[in-house]
Amino acid sequence: MENQRNQEQLSEFRVDKSQKAALQVTRAGYTDDSQTTDDPTSLSSVTINSGIPSPSPSTLAVPLLSVYKATRDVLPPVREVIEGCRVFWTSCFQVGFFSKRLFLERLSQDMEGIPLFLVLGVLSVSCRFTPCLIKRLVLDALYDPSLDNIQGFFMLALAQWGDGDKTRSSIHMGIALRMAGILRLHREETYDLPPDATTDEIVRSEMARRTFWVLETQDNLHSSHASPAPFGPDDITALLPCGESDFSFGRIPVARAAMPGTKAAQQRPELTALPSRSLFATLLQAHSLWGTVARKARPADFCSDGHPPWDERSNFAAMCRTLQEWERGIPENHLWSVWNMRGHSAEQVHLAYLSIVIVTRLTNVVIRRIYLEDMITTITKGLSDGAPPEFWVTVADELFENVQGLLEPINFFMSNRAENEGFSAMLLFSLYVSGTLSLQLLKTPSLCPRLASTAQGNLTRALEMLVEWQNTWPLASRWLVLLRKAAASVHHGNPRTEVAKSGDAERGCGDNREEGREKQ
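Given the sequence above, the corresponding structure tokens read:
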């Protein structure tokens, strides 16, 4: 029975070859006699529901209709909903799984045909005022695996994470990931298209592919110590998304990149460093590297192989080499420069580009920050732990060099951002990490004499921006409190205060604890 149910759910994502690959858009668990497949076990192209499916007569109930009607009635006017979605794309989610053109057409022509759960999910992120309404539809969507519902649960999880409620966010993200697994979005064969595929079929297939990778990357981005990976790398054969132009015009790309470590990369290693890979593909790879480091962001994890960090066989040395090799292969227009920032701004994808730059530098910072106590002990106290001469001096210099590299693009963006332009919580978290390390350098300038003079200015700037934007992302208020407390103790001359304990950074990003729960 379970296999039969899964096959029914997968039927939503199959091509009817007998009707020239017309994509089925029937609800999982319901059938459309006009569309059948020759092989009920085959997998092919992907689509999404075109609207709220009609429930069967046996399940149609007045209370359910009342909920939908009541929720529809409290939505803003259509023009405001459309504006909220535009804000979402320009300020929150510049590259992702939505086809902006198709979604706006659906909103303007037939908003009733778009699941409320998805609309409210988008608004809960962009407008920050609808989470209470979206709760009404959670249970109805819970047992209906579809692309719309996956996207809706993802939006809800994203809004809750920004409010500091990790528990609910993780649960709803987990539901979205499980649905993606049921629909086999992690498998490349799910996206097979016939030679005569229409533009609409190509776009819908890409939307599904992007949905999977957005889930995967967001889980990496919000990873904390010892958090599990959602999909085993050996199970992932799906290649990475195409460029925004191909997506918009419904073109099949000439080539696709692969995520390092996945089955797809094992089969074709050259695809991990594809020179023509899309901005979105590079962003996903950067987030994957961050997830790897964040899940092992304690000395014990990186030393679990029995080798000290200065040993070339150690996990630390191997991860540093992986980061260096990946950065060397990044396409030129994905590297940090003011001109690249301007170019991506003109194409309205600058927040995605900025995220690549920030997450790459942050990963380099955190992997070295893990050993901050070792640097302090060796450099300031002259104690030996068996490391080669100057090893910890070099690591400390690399640490604060990356802090400086992290702050440069953030300062440029914040100084030039348009009024009311949004940004991710990860940017504020990066400010917190930079602030704690600037505070440590202010307290112990011998860690990096070359950059010690920048510490006070960097700390002041980090505090100013966290104060200014804590209300936009409530989660940032926790980081501000921690940073202020540490700064006050240092300025009052308390030598016993630990300014930057290893592991605080990744716990601050991935482990929001119970904060924000009162808001729900």
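The chain has a mean pLDDT of 76. Try to locate this feature in the token string yourself.
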